[in-house]
Write a structure and sequence with these properties.
It is found in: Cytoplasm. 35% of the residues lie in helices and 30% in strands. With 193 residues, it is α+β, with helices and mostly antiparallel strands. It has one domain: 2-Layer Sandwich (Ribosomal Protein S5, domain 2), CATH 3.30.230.40. The two termini are 20 Å apart.
Length: 193
């Protein structure tokens, strides 16, 4: 079983994540940021994995610390869940349209965290979240998960762009974490991720 529970508490936030890539269906998100709850819910449901996120942060300041720390803790949980990576597919991608918007996410569970995001938002914020924090969330996630991700998005409506991004990323993550039947080797010519 690859289910992992991780927590992080600072003077700014308290975040708890339970991540289970093998058991779809249990999604319970409570961050205090409505739009982030919506995005993480879509991320997990379309990714086909169970995810619990409980976060309390200094939202009276802004949502930066909370969103960043969710990315850190979720990334750490995914990395621990991967372990040596024996049998996983490792590489995956997904393309998701949402009305006029489209997002592509290509992932490599390589042990090396890296993020490339190619696209732009129309406005300053979506929901109550400044749009630059979406890239920061995925950066925090990728660097802590040891995942290289390339995300390309386009469209007009920022809500649709965000939703397509989170869905595409979730689907690609679910595929990359899936175990190939009968495979027990680490998916790397080096023998390690």
């Amino acid at each position: 079983m690859r289910s992992v529970e991780k927590s992080r508490e600072t003077k700014e936030t308290a975040v708890r994540v339970v991540f289970d890539p093998d058991t779809p269906g249990t999604v319970d998100i409570s961050t205090g940021i409505g739009f982030m709850d919506h995005m993480l819910n879509a991320f997990a449901r379309h990714g086909g994995f169970s995810l619990t996120v409980e976060a309390k942060g200094d939202l009276e300041v802004d949502c930066h610390h909370t969103i960043e720390d969710i990315g850190i803790v979720l990334g750490t949980a995914v990395k621990e869940s991967v372990g040596e990576g024996r049998g996983i597919r490792r590489f995956a991608h997904a393309i998701v349209p949402m009305d006029e918007s489209r997002a592509t996410a290509a992932l490599d569970i390589s042990g090396r965290g890296y993020l490339v995001m190619d696209g732009s938002f129309t406005g300053i914020s979506t929901g109550s979240i400044p749009n630059d924090l979406f890239e920061h969330f995925f950066y925090s996630f990728c660097t802590n998960a040891g995942i290289t991700a390339h995300v390309i998005f386009s469209g007009v409506n920022d809500h649709h762009k965000c939703e397509a991004i989170f869905k595409a990323f979730g689907i690609a993550l679910g595929k990359a974490l899936s175990v190939r039947p009968g495979e027990t080797a680490v998916p790397s010519t080096k023998g390690t991720l």
